[in-house]
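Supplementary notes (optional reading)

For those who missed the lab, this is the record we used. Protein: DNA-binding response regulator. Length: 219 residues.
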Amino acid sequence: MTDLASTRVLLVDGSQLITEGLRISLHRTHCFRVVGIAHTVADAARCLRSVAVDLVVTDFDVPGAGPLRTVRDTAQLRPSARVVVLSNADSPSWARAALDAGAVAYLLKTSPVAELLPLIAAAVRGAPATIDARVGSLARLPARMPPPAALAQLSAREFDVLAEMAKGMDNARIAQRLFISNDTVKTHVKAILRKLGARDRAHAVAMVLGESSEAFVTT
């Protein structure tokens, strides 16, 4: 599709401020028609069932279900629609998970609007898969990662804990940084290992970052 003015857009994000800002910017710059706005996964699914859309711009982790649920819902309910993921995380593993789930672009919310809009327009025009330049190279990721379905099972908080694990933080530091208890961290770590099918925390990090397990704290 190349006629941007006829592009029907669904915006999905837990923040009303973000969806409204995108709505205004997309209309003013490219005359996109925003035909739906959703703040939860359930609302997004209802929109996808009831309204024809050409483009879905969605957060990586929308309230109401695991990460990437809206990407997968779009692939099922509106397979011809293109999906752009907006995220706060400059994570290569998250970017690959988004593309594997069916997104055509993984962009960062922290990017200036003037940079985001051309990339979104390019996605509509059928550009190859796009990843924000500030996201680390996917080349260093292992060829075999946990399947997107496994990553998508992680809650937003479990992703936070996994990110801290990848920085080499032990449970006490993770608890301090995320303002949660040590017991809560342990619960999240156990859930992460179970959902990813990892042997231990070092293995879980290595699975998604492709680093030697010796580089990470294992206690």
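If you only remember one thing from this example: DSSP finds ten helices and six strands in the chain.
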